[in-house]
Design brief:
With 251 residues, the chain is an alpha/beta fold. 35% of the residues lie in helices and 28% in strands. It has one domain: Alpha-Beta Barrel (TIM Barrel). Strands 1-4-5-6-7-10-11-12 form an eight-stranded parallel barrel, surrounded by six helices. The model has no long low-confidence stretch (mean pLDDT 93).
Length: 251
C-alpha cells in the first residue's frame, strides 16, 4: 500500500510566505526559504509552492525564489502560479521544480493539460482545483478563488484526468484557513471519481483532521499551511500520531 503523504504548502505573496482564511485576510507567515529548510528537517514528504497572486497580477511565477528554495531542499517540489505555457514549465523545472500545478489557465484552456503532460509526462502535471459549496453544489473557482465558473468539481476533476493530469490538488475554499477540518465529502467524491492521486487541502487544524481525511476518503496526501508555519503541530509528531492510528506514513 502506498504511504500517505504529509505536505506543507508555501503560499507566496510579495516574496513572503502568507496565509489567509477563506482566501482573504492574508497575513505574513515567514521567510519561504527558511520554512522550506525547516520542513526538510522535519521529514515532510513533499513541498508545494503557490505564487497566489501571479495569475491576478498577470505575471509569471517568481523563478528566482523557486531557485533559492530548490537549492535548499531534497524532497519533491511542486510549483504553481501564473503557468500558461510549455515555456513557463521549462523555466520552473530548470529552476528546480519537480512538478507544476495549473489552475486558472487549465480551466480557460483545458488542452493546456494535454500539452503539458505530453511534453513533460503526466507525473509532472498537477491540476489544482479551488472549490466552494454554493447553492447545494461544489463549484470550481479561478483567479485565486475570486471567480466562480460553471464547472462542477467532480466533473472537472474527471476531465482533468482524461486530459493527462497526474494528480489533483483539491482545496476547499469553505474551510481554507479555518482549522475546522478538511471538507470530507467533496474530497471523498473527487478521490473516488478519479484514478490519480488526490491531495486534500483546506481546513487542517489538528492531527485528528488528518486522521479523518485519510480514514474517511481515499486521498493520497493531505496539505496544510497554518498549523505547520506557526509551529502549532510539527510534521514528526503528526506522522507518529497517524502511524499510531494505523495509517501508513513514512516515518
Amino acid at each position: 500500500m502506498l504511504k500517505k503523504r504529509i505536505i506543507p504548502c508555501l503560499d507566496i505573496k510579495g516574496g513572503r510566505t502568507v496565509k489567509g482564511v477563506n482566501f482573504i485576510d492574508i497575513r505574513d507567515a515567514g521567510d519561504p526559504v527558511e520554512l522550506a529548510k525547516k520542513y526538510v528537517e522535519q521529514r515532510a514528504d513533499e513541498l508545494v509552492f503557490l505564487d497566489i497572486t501571479a495569475t491576478i497580477e498577470n505575471r509569471k511565477t517568481l523563478v528566482s525564489l523557486v531557485e533559492k528554495i530548490a537549492a535548499e531542499i531534497n524532497i519533491p517540489f511542486t510549483v504553481g502560479g501564473g503557468i500558461n505555457s510549455i515555456e513557463d514549465v521549462e523555466y520552473l523545472i530548470k529552476a528546480g521544480a519537480d512538478k507544476v500545478t495549473v489552475n486558472s489557465s487549465a480551466v480557460k484552456n483545458p488542452e493546456l493539460i494535454s500539452e503539458l503532460s505530453g511534453q513533460f509526462g503526466s507525473q509532472c502535471i498537477v491540476v489544482a482545483i479551488d472549490t466552494k459549496f454554493i447553492s447545494n453544489e461544489w463549484i470550481v473557482f479561478t483567479e485565486g478563488g475570486r471567480s466562480p465558473t460553471s464547472l462542477t468539481t467532480v466533473e472537472w476533476a474527471k476531465k482533468a484526468e482524461k486530459l493527462g493530469a497526474g494528480e489533483i490538488l483539491l482545496t476547499s475554499m469553505n474551510t481554507d484557513g479555518t482549522k475546522s477540518g478538511f471538507s470530507i465529502e467533496i474530497t471523498k467524491e473527487v478521490a473516488a471519481g478519479v484514478n490519480i492521486p488526490v491531495i486534500a487541502s483546506g481546513g487542517a487544524g489538528s492531527m485528528e483532521h488528518f486522521r479523518d481525511v485519510f480514514t474517511r476518503t481515499s486521498c493520497s496526501a493531505a496539505l496544510a499551511a497554518t498549523i505547520f508555519h506557526y509551529g502549532e503541530i510539527s510534521i514528526p509528531e503528526m506522522k507518529e500520531y497517524l502511524a499510531g492510528k494505523g495509517i501508513n506514513v513514512r516515518l
